[in-house]
Amino acid sequence: MSEVFFSDLEIPQPHYHLNVGSGSHSEQTAKVMTAFEPICNAEKPACVVVFGDVNSTLACSIVAKKLKLDVAHIEAGLRSGDREMPEEINRIVTDSISDLLFVTERSGRENLMREGHGKDSVFFVGHVMIDNLYHELSKLDDVPHCSSVVQQIRKKTSRYGVVTLHRPSNVDDEAVLRGIVDALNDISQSLDLVFAVHPRTRKMLDTYGIRFADQIIATEPLGYREFLSLWRDSLLVLTDSGGLQEESTALGIPCLTIRENTERPITIEEGTNTLVGSNPERIVAEARRVLVTPMNSDNKRVPEFWDGHASLRILNVLAKRYEF
Asked: Active-site positions?
């Protein structure tokens, strides 16, 4: 998948590929650490910049600090309060050893202050993912990007919702996954649904013999740009993804998050996001509410600093700190 994202997001090819691949959390973290350490020794950076909450975020942070290098964490301070989520452990540990912490929303700064970080190390800059979202939207407007998959979907329906689902808590347990799919099948009787099925989810659906209703259009995972071209015109997003909670808020599209908690509370407080958990009845009820009652424009505020300039704010802090 990485090549698709490098192409879609216009990211230059990296100087180094770690070639870690899949594996358990411990295996991935260990492989990233052993592959990244010689690169740091060779390059001798003044600062290692890490993003998000994945295993490589944690692994590269630990390597950097062991080598007495500064660490800057972009998307710092987010907390779900659920330590059963691997991402929550990655966030907490990475933040605890970072020298510069760039937060996307005020709750991130409040969390870090509560955990004892100094004000001089925390910077409220906004969200680079939203920077990228606006950039990609401009590309879609300039050169319409519509893959054959999206074209076929648009021929079938013009009124639809979009679904993504991949978290182990939702897809690994048969009863939970079956209940969520039952809810989606119910919703699809009123609104066509396009489900971009994650490989992990596809495996579990096949294992448990769970089937979609005819009104659910199941696709393989889509590249960023083609998926954006699809969901930006949807009436509803149903997801357990963190990024889609934020991106749908930025575009004012109703989002039902199939989780019991979120590390992105701003999407609920000021955005279009609603937590529905994995209870089928609640998922269906909230979907019907959204479809029957148009969202008030007052509830479509774009959060502070989600203006497309977060990356420049980060660059200014780094340039001042390291004099480049």
From this structure: 166
